Amino acid sequence: MMIRVNPEVQKALDNNQPVVALESTIISHGMPYPQNVKTALEVEAIIREKGAVPATIGIIDGVGVVGMTPEEIEEFGKREGIIKVSRRDLPVIMSKKLWGATTVATTMIFAAKAGIEVFVTGGVGGVHRGAQETFDISADLQELAHTNVTVICAGAKAILDLPLTLEYLETFGVPVLGYKTKELAAFYTRTSGLMVDYEMDSEKEIAEAILAKREMGLDGGVLVTNPIPEEYAMNKDEMDVAINSAIKEMDAQGVHGKDSTPFLLAKIKELTGGKSLDSNIQLVFNNARVGTEIAKELCQLRG
Ligand code: PSU
Ligand code: MN
């Protein structure tokens, strides 16, 4: 058995009820314990309150679990040595029956296999700064190019090269939709100075675009970017300083590859005295609200 779908999730899917997928790398590698577990459970509560079934996805003993229990989420948050699993890691983690945290890429893979169309996260991976030399481009972008899941995020972090990330998504045919904004959100801040492809004024409009993509048989994801609420946004200048210094330290320590994103997140938290973590948590909550509405609209349109 490679994949186990929680019965409640399966029942909702069978009855055209809204389901929202959630990732687990944000739990094991994106936030410290215990805030990670608290946030993961609160996100699920928000999704339920708004009328959908949450499905937090992770790999337990080599099995892709779609809809972890609260106990499993707790274990994910605490356990040492959980491996960050992107597409290339998946075969070995499954064959060796290990525990693995799913990134945006692998969460999309399991969501698509289970038939879940909407996935809420914080930020997606992208083209890293200096990718011209390092070739460091997140596998999340290729997954968005091929796998039929809509990802709701707060844009991409300025630890990435945002203009190149947009170019890459354009090349691979991924629509980048701004929720009630023309500008690409930059995770901790609402603006980036870059434009999204289309501003969308409602969840219904977004659901209609997703459906049009499916009806045309255009494989691949849709990226919805939802800016962090103003009251939780970080100061852009403070953020720029923290990000630049985190990247410098990363290079000095020779951190690269899959360790890069977790290292930068932890460093930025340290440099902002924990404020970036508060922002990170709030933007995920905000994405959960919008994602749940999109999932509900999709069910209605499919009715
Ligand atoms: N961005 C965040 N928090 C995260 C991640 C991204 O703000 O936890 C995680 C996601 O799981 C994403 C992964 O899929 O980092 C990207 O890693 P990489 O750049 O190594 O592909
Ligand atoms: Mn990478």
Estimated radius of gyration: 18 Å
* Percent strand: 5-15%
Main sheet: strands, sense, barrel: 11 strands, mixed
Mean pLDDT: 97
Number of helices: 13
Structural class: alpha/beta
Keywords: Glycosidase, Hydrolase, Lyase, Manganese, Metal-binding
EC number: 4.2.1.70
InterPro entries: Indigdn_synthA-like, PsuG
Protein name: Pseudouridine-5'-phosphate glycosidase
Indicate the topology.
Layout: E1 3-5, H1 7-14, E2 19-22, H2 25-30, H3 35-49, E3 53-60, E4 63-66, H4 70-78, E5 83-85, H5 90-95, E6 100-102, H6 104-114, E7 118-120, H7 131-134, H8 139-146, E8 150-153, H9 162-171, E9 176-179, E10 198-200, H10 203-215, E11 222-225, H11 236-253, H12 260-271, H13 275-302
Structure at a glance:
The chain has 303 residues and is an alpha/beta fold. The chain has helices spanning 7-14, 25-30, 35-49, 70-78, 90-95, 104-114, 131-134, 139-146, 162-171, 203-215, 236-253, 260-271, 275-302, and strands at 3-5, 19-22, 53-60, 63-66, 83-85, 100-102, 118-120, 150-153, 176-179, 198-200, 222-225. It contains 13 helices and eleven strands.
